Every structure is written in C-alpha cells, then in structure tokens.
Amino acid sequence: MAAHLDLEEQEQLEQVKAFWKRWGNLITWIITAALAAFAAWQGWNWYQRDQAAKAAAMYEEFDRALAAQDLDKAAVAAGDLKARFASTAYATQAGLQVAKLQVEKGKADDARQSLSWVAEHGAEGGPYRDLARLRLAGLQIDAKAYDDAAKTLDGIKATEFAGLVADRRGDLLLLQDKRDAAKAEYQKALAALEKTQDYRRIVEAKLATLGVPTAVETAGAAQ
Asked: Per the structure, how many domains does the chain have?
C-alpha cells in the first residue's frame, strides 16, 4: 500500500470524516436503539413465556384445591394468581371458578368480591369481564343491592349476552314491583335468545306469570 494517499483518496477520506462528524452520533443512536429494542423484544418474549409457565403451575395448584372443594386453599391460590399474574387468563379463570365455589359454600360476600375483581381486572379480549358482571349482578340482586345491580348490568357490552342481560334486568325490575317494565325486558330477552336455547322456557315461564301468553300457550289455544 502506498505510504501516502493521493489527492483523490484524501478528498474521499475528508468527505467520510465530515459525514461522520455530522451524522455519526445520530447513526450510532439509531443503531443502538434498534439493538436495544430487539434485545428488549427478545427479553419480553422470554419473560412472557416464563410468566405463563409459572402462572400455569400455580393454576394447577388452584385446580387441585377446587377439585377437592377446599375453599380455603382455592381462595389462597386464586389470590396468589391475581397478585402475581393478574393479566393472565389463569387469574381470570381462577376468579370465576373460586366465586362459584364461594357461592356453593354460602360465601356470597366473598363471591361478589371475586367477581368484582374479574369485572375490573380480568383478561381482556374475551367474554370474561362481562360474564363476571352478569354473575355479579345476580348476586347483587339476591342481596337486594338493586342500584348496584343496575349499574353492573349497564356495564355489559357483549352482544352475545344481550338476552341474558335483559332477563336479569327483568328480574331486577320485577323485584321492585315494576311489572310493566319487567315484562318489556323479558320480551326483549325472548327476542334476543336463540330459539334452540333451553333458557327460553324459563323466560316464557316468567312472562306467563305476568299474564303474557307464551308461544306454547298460543299454539295450544289455536288448536
């Protein structure tokens, strides 16, 4: 290699130096930021996999307690899932399941708390929060917390629950002696429920008690 660069090479070198002086730091920042983002993405993926594995193991512990009908252990395991893995579907499922067991064991107050947590913090992107609200509204109606139940029902937005929400709202209104309003809600429920759903018979029975002929009664009278 020649000991000295010729004039053209020197000019090229000066251009490179000038370019780097002007843009070098910016390029370095962009490159390091990209590398950091990639490393963070890799680390986040690992973290998510690790968290999911730990949550799954903890849910197995909860599931064993649930199968044994051991409410104390199930409640503790569900609490741990909510505290450590609140954003996972495991915590949401545990909240719904432990609420069911709490109701069966006569712990309605605890069940309302469990369902309230799912309604507020449950996994997004599915029906879980609205399912929790629907069940919670039923317990609030049982406790005669009618205003709370109405607010809970108002928070349900999933269209697949429209029929059940209307039915539950009808129950709420009927218990407040608002018969006409209850009748209207039951009719909404009947219209929203699929004709193949067995639950329609329950709604029809409620309407019958309010003096509204059901499809079965109408068909029988026509014969």
From this structure: 2
